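Supplementary Data S3. Sequence and structure tokens for construct A.
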Amino acid sequence: MIPFLELSKSLAKRGHHISFLSTPRNILRLPKLPPTLPPLIDFIPIHLPPSDDLADNAEATIDLLPADVEHLKKAYDGLHQPIARFLEQASPRPDWIVQDFVPHWLSPIAAELHIPCAMLNLFPAYFNAFIYGPDGVGMRRSAEQLIVAPEWIPFPTAAAYRLFEARQFHYFLQDDSSGLSAAYRFGLVVRRCKFMALRGCMEWD
């Protein structure tokens, strides 16, 4: 959430009005906005639907064990209708929607309302090059294929997982209780958004 908040602050400094949608507890745990910032960020709480698989007040990955994150993604899919209602009733309509990879259903809603979407990708550029690959081909690899450099990297590199790391990471490529893998969600959002913004820095990337 913090990268999205930082982006919102940067846009607000340039005179853009921001509607920041998240769940109530997530909004409460965000740091306070600096008093010098123009009052152009509105925080819009959207309540998660009840879930037997989530503890009370579990609204972010920080609240959960890694094995339970899939239940949070499933619960987030229940935000489909309230967010659709918000967008339909918004006046004026947003010029853009900036989203992450979990709500794969958001861009089709936005398309019906003629609102373009952009994906803010919090994974660094090198990770995207290694994992995603051209047209998402990297998402279909087995754990064993992750221990060597991918064939689409055109220069020598030692970038690869160790086998135990690859097996731990492979959950990203497998369907979970929501019925979709994180990789599939990621791929859908990449294909449906107008562009993808990467977080990074010249010294690292």
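Construct B, processed identically:
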Amino acid sequence: MRYSVVNDAVYCAPCVLFGPQRQDTKEKTFSLSSPVTDWENLSRCVSRHINEKSKHHDNVLAATEFLRIKTGENSDILESMWEIFNARIKRNREVLSCIIDAILLCGKQNLAIRGHEEKHSNFVALLHMRAKDNIVLADHLAFADPQKKYTSPDIQNELIELCADQIISTLVQDCNDSKYFGFMSDEATDCSTKEQASICVRFFDKTTKSIREEFLGFAEASRTTREALAELFLEQLELKGIDVDHMRAQGYDGAANMSGIHKGVQSRIKERIPGASYIHCKAHNLNLSIVHASEEPLIRNLMNTVQAIAFAFDYSAKRVLFFKESLEQNAVVREEIDRRQKLKTLC
């Protein structure tokens, strides 16, 4: 019971705070939810208020439980629900971490994720192996809703794309930290007969004090004119977050469309970035050197002889065994061979 000095009346505090705002007129009960000033019949009012038909007992229990929660004696239902929610988040993150680790392992080891069948794929096999030592993952694989296991091909592709974005973001940040960089590209036709252009950058890593060459991805080249390729290269670099104005070198093959001084891609890029000097790709130089050297009869005959010798031993187990036995009989030759690479490996 509480006394109001302002109203000079008494009321039931639990019923005022935790009872219904409106009293149901159909109920045959008496309520002290509103102040009472009938002092002569106060005892009878209180008796009628706390009878079995009244909601007084429920309101008192609600008030008591409220005080226990506020004092920390009992836990709040919202707090309990929040703890369950946080535990579920922690569990899902642990499961997702295991799934990402399996995808990254397949990528690092160049393993096919799916395999011949989805149910018996390398990805699923890695998860089940990991589940032997991880109770949370084992419970997830065994009892989770099939549509919420995060192991479908769509989820795998989405995670791969997210990992790729993170890797490219790190590489771009390293390139921007170096400030100046060189750009390299080459085109090739894929299995779907689409022209794909590689996007690569070369820069000096200030942390490791070394030159790095990083591959940032492929870009489909629908047109191979110098204007289209130059626009494609600059657009791809800008989309990835690289400041193209800091380009100081560009390397391509020796094709006129790429290396032309007046009508090549390199001249088109130099119109916008004068400091981007063109350098012929060394890998293409080596390839061209081998092609031109093979035009000489002496070199061509030498390569044909080496190829014929390799074929003679490669397709005959008897010849290889006889060759090894002959070498083992000569101590000088055997010692010399132990210190050298095999001819086939060297070639």
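The beta strands are 2-4, 9-11, 181-184, 187-189, 195-205, 210-220, 247-252, 277-280. Residues 77-108 form the longest helix (32 residues).
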